[in-house]
Amino acid sequence: MPTLDDILEQIGEFDFFQKQALFFLCLLSVTFTPIYVGIFFLGFTPEHHCRSPGMAELSQWCGWSLEEQLNHTVPEWGVHEASFSSRCRRYEVDWNTTDISCTDPLGSLVANQSTVPLGPCRDGWVYDSPGTSLVTEFNLVCEDSWKLDLFQSCVNAGFFIGSMSIGYVADRFGRKLCLLVTVFLNSASGVLMAFAPSYTWTVIFRLIQGLVSKGGWLTGYVLIAEFVGSNYRRAACIIYQAAFSLGLIILTALAYALPHWRWLQLTVTLPNFFFLLYYWCLPESPRWLIAQKQNEKAMEVIKHIAKGNKKKLPLSFQNLNSEDEDGEKPKPSFLDLVRTPQIRKHTFILMYSWFTSSVLYQGLIMHMGIAAGNMYLDFLYSALVEFPAAIILMLTLDRIGRRYPWAAANVMAGGACLITALVPDTLYWLKMTAACLGRMGITMCYEIICLVNPELYPTFLRNLGVLVCSSMCDLGGIITPFLVYRLAELWHELPLVIFAVIGLIDGGLVLLLPEMKGKTLPETIEDAENLHR
């Protein structure tokens, strides 16, 4: 009996239907970007200081009329206010004992600076920002600055939990149902977050987005990998990830145009409701249907693909193996990921590779952000460097294979981190060049692991395998801020040295995986176990 790959060779491995499906799913990939990295804009922390003794207090003590208040409300008062306040403390002015002249309050306050005690902020903070963010609206500064870390940790915790649960749902109940459910929950929680009345509700809705959004994105990744033939799987998956990079640029433009976080959140969320129309645009994965012994439904999807590609399915290919139609359907299990020796090896190496990619990818961005300049330009530059990485992979993966470019990308990322750490600041051009090469290398690693991970698992276990392994990416995202900000206090370049070691180790481990260039996707446990032969 013919396999699905044999049938796709007859009706088109990457023809009109697959290109249309890829376009639809790439739109989904673009909208995942604000959830994954949106904290850079939603939660940006502008320069701020504690509000100093107010004009109202001084006016009351001096007995100024409204006209006199206006005369004293000059730009210098704001300068004075900033200079007389630390970020988290303010000067406690006792108007009855402090020697302040109503004729020249600024000069007299400066003269008495050393005798005025410090106290906690009671009147809020002043932010040097034209827009709003989570920080400015909920005052997530000073003793409440940890709440911003909690906000981002909840997103990564949601990614971590959702990766496992949604992976099981997609392998148990189908890719299409899982995709639609996650799209709806992501859209609804995103809109509710834009109207959240308090910080607590904002965190709750963001956690829900984390629980479903990454699982939906990876389900779309698996779906397009199962729609196309083996010869075009690499190109389709890289284009899917390039759409994520495009989302970085679009997010930068939207954040620049909409500096208020609620409007930005609403703008990036509303297009997600469009994806509910995919109920009529995308069929279920034929590979999943075959793995579930639903051969009749699988053949209907195959005929739909053939019609979309304007191809006619040969009579000899219109029957799938139906002998096991009523047999036991394989059910995904977490134990299947470690039960057999080869799949167990694949699982552990892929988990470490996901962890490495996350730590280096996010860590390099955070490390550059320690001394960041223009927030929008820095983010834009970091996004543009991802496109050459995709082009390099398009030109090499089908010629050389997966393993050697993957190992080389890890070595390049790790080596670039080490060079960046050791090069003195006086050679700024060399330091920045090395940092850009490191970002390019780890971006290539990210794109390769997204391609290889689905290829190493059988169909009934594929989505679960991808999401469980990629959960280590979320664990890396949780600990990366501590690696960067705490280690940098000991030595500014120490995080880069740690990144280098982690990346170089991964470069050696990936060489232990089987080469998947030109191979068909495994359908059973036995197929996956024999990939190394």
From TrEMBL:
<keyword id="KW-0472">Membrane</keyword>
<comment type="similarity">
    <text>Belongs to the major facilitator (TC 2.A.1) superfamily. Organic cation transporter (TC 2.A.1.19) family.</text>
</comment>
<keyword id="KW-0812">Transmembrane</keyword>
<keyword id="KW-1003">Cell membrane</keyword>
<dbReference type="InterPro" id="IPR004749">
    <property type="entry name" value="Orgcat_transp/SVOP"/>
</dbReference>
<feature type="transmembrane region" description="Helical">
    <location>
        <begin position="236"/>
        <end position="257"/>
    </location>
</feature>
<dbReference type="Pfam" id="PF00083">
    <property type="entry name" value="Sugar_tr"/>
</dbReference>
<dbReference type="InterPro" id="IPR005828">
    <property type="entry name" value="MFS_sugar_transport-like"/>
</dbReference>
<keyword id="KW-0406">Ion transport</keyword>
<protein>
    <submittedName>
        <fullName>Solute carrier family 22 member 2</fullName>
    </submittedName>
</protein>
<dbReference type="GO" id="GO:0042910">
    <property type="term" value="F:xenobiotic transmembrane transporter activity"/>
</dbReference>
<keyword id="KW-1133">Transmembrane helix</keyword>
<keyword id="KW-0325">Glycoprotein</keyword>
<feature type="transmembrane region" description="Helical">
    <location>
        <begin position="177"/>
        <end position="197"/>
    </location>
</feature>
<feature type="transmembrane region" description="Helical">
    <location>
        <begin position="404"/>
        <end position="423"/>
    </location>
</feature>
<dbReference type="InterPro" id="IPR020846">
    <property type="entry name" value="MFS_dom"/>
</dbReference>
<feature type="domain" description="Major facilitator superfamily (MFS) profile">
    <location>
        <begin position="100"/>
        <end position="518"/>
    </location>
</feature>
<feature type="transmembrane region" description="Helical">
    <location>
        <begin position="21"/>
        <end position="44"/>
    </location>
</feature>
<feature type="transmembrane region" description="Helical">
    <location>
        <begin position="464"/>
        <end position="488"/>
    </location>
</feature>
<feature type="transmembrane region" description="Helical">
    <location>
        <begin position="203"/>
        <end position="224"/>
    </location>
</feature>
<feature type="transmembrane region" description="Helical">
    <location>
        <begin position="349"/>
        <end position="373"/>
    </location>
</feature>
<dbReference type="InterPro" id="IPR036259">
    <property type="entry name" value="MFS_trans_sf"/>
</dbReference>
<feature type="transmembrane region" description="Helical">
    <location>
        <begin position="379"/>
        <end position="397"/>
    </location>
</feature>
<feature type="transmembrane region" description="Helical">
    <location>
        <begin position="494"/>
        <end position="513"/>
    </location>
</feature>
<keyword id="KW-0813">Transport</keyword>
<feature type="transmembrane region" description="Helical">
    <location>
        <begin position="150"/>
        <end position="170"/>
    </location>
</feature>
<dbReference type="InterPro" id="IPR005829">
    <property type="entry name" value="Sugar_transporter_CS"/>
</dbReference>
<feature type="transmembrane region" description="Helical">
    <location>
        <begin position="263"/>
        <end position="282"/>
    </location>
</feature>
<dbReference type="GO" id="GO:0016323">
    <property type="term" value="C:basolateral plasma membrane"/>
</dbReference>
<dbReference type="GO" id="GO:0006811">
    <property type="term" value="P:monoatomic ion transport"/>
</dbReference>
